[in-house]
Amino acid sequence: YGILDAYLKGTGGDIFLVPALGGNPVKLVSNGFDPAWSPDGKTIVFRSVRSGDWELWTIRADGGEPKQLTNDIGFEYQPSWSPDGKSIVCVIAHLSSPADLYVISSSGGHPQRLTYDKTLFLKPGWSPDGKSILFSSRRSGSMNIWQIPFFSGAQDVATPKRVTVGEGADVNLSVSSIKHTISYATVKSSPDIWELTVSTGMLRQVSTETGLEDQPIAFPDGKVLLVQSDRGGNTSLWTMDLNGTFLSQVVEEGTGGASLSPDGKEIAYLQGNDVAIRAIGDVSLLKVIPGTGSFPCWSPDAKTIAVSRGDSSSVNIWTHSIESGAEKQITSFKDAALFPDWSPDGERIIFSLNKGNSRHLWMVPSSGGTPIEITSGGSEYSHPKWSPTEKNVILCLKDHRDICLVNASTGKVRELQAFTESGVNLIDYPSWSPDGKKIYFSLYRKTGDIYVLENY
Question: How much is the pTM?
C-alpha cells in the first residue's frame, strides 16, 4: 500500500497487556496490530490478517476467542472506539485508491463513509463528546491533523476542518479526555537517493536536500538519474547528476512510476490514472494509455509497455503495443500484481504479488502463460529489477530494509546490504546502473518531536 509502509507494520505482530505502572506483560492474542480499548475497558478492537485479508477483529480483554468485525475487500487499519462504545472509526484502503475514513457499528454491519479524499489517512480518534473525529491526512498535500463532525447514519458528507498547518507530517494523534486537547508527533521522513557499489558494498549518499527525492532511474549513459522530487512545490520528475545536483525538470505533472525507454529518449509515467508517453525534452505527448494503470515498464525492443492495472478487487499485469494499441492481460490474479519488469531478452516479466499478508516475486512469460512463484517464506520481497548484465539475476528489496539479489531459476536469495541502524524507516525503489555495477535506491530517515495542542 505504497507510503503506508512508512507508518504501518505488517507481519509477526502480537498483542500484549501490561499494567500501566509496570509489571509482567501477558499475551492476549497472536497476529494482531493497532489495538484500541473500548470505553468500558472490557474489549479490544484490532486489525489482523488471520482471515486471509486485513480486517478488524475484537477480543475480550480477559481473553477468549477473537471475533471478526469486518469482512470486505478493503484493508482496515488503526481503529478507535467512540466514547459511547457504539461506533468504531477506522481507515479503509483499497488497491486502486489509498484510503478514506469510515465508521462501523461496534456490533458490525455496513461501514458509514465519512470522506471521499482517496489519500493517506492515519490514526483517527474521537473528541471526548463523540461529536467529531480527528485524524491525520494528506488531503491538503502535506500531512496535517483535521477534524470532521460525526452524525451517525448521516447520508451527507461533512467538510473537515484543518487543525494543524505546516509541512508535517503530523502523525500518531492522541486525543485527550480534556476538552480540546490533543498530542501528536511531527515526523520528518523524506527520502534521499543513495548509491550502492555491488562489488564492494560501499554506500554513498547522492542527494541531500530536505524535500523528497525518490524513485531513481539511471539514463543509458550512466551519468544522469531521473528522479521524483517535490523541489518545485509539487511532486514531479527531474534529472539529477551523480553528485546530487538537479539539472532540469522533465515533466511537471508526473506523479512518479516512471520508466525510461531503452535508448533513454522517451519516458512513460503516470498522469492521473493514465500512462503518458513523451520524448525527453518535448512538451507534447506522444501517446496516452488510458485506464487505471501504474508502474509502466518498457520492453527491451521498446515496442511494448507493461503496466499494472485493476480495481479495488484485483490488479494484474497487462501489455500494451505502442504502435497498434493492442492490449493483452498477462496475469489473472485476484490479488495485486505490481512493479513489472522485463527480462533483458524480452521473454519474461518479473513482478511483485501482494497476496493476503505476503508479498513475493513471481515470474510469467511476457506472451502470457502460467506464473511461477520465485520467493517464499515469512519475509516480503518487492520492487524487482532484472540485472542488465546477468541473465537470471534479479535485484529486489526484502522487507523494505534489505537490498538483495535473487536467482530467477532457483529462488536463492543473496543479501547485499541490510539497514539495521536506528532512524532508517525504510528503503525503496531500487534500480541498476546500465553496467550493473551500482544500485540506486531511496532511503527514508525518520526524526520527530512530540507536541501538545490546546484549544484546537
Answer: 0.78
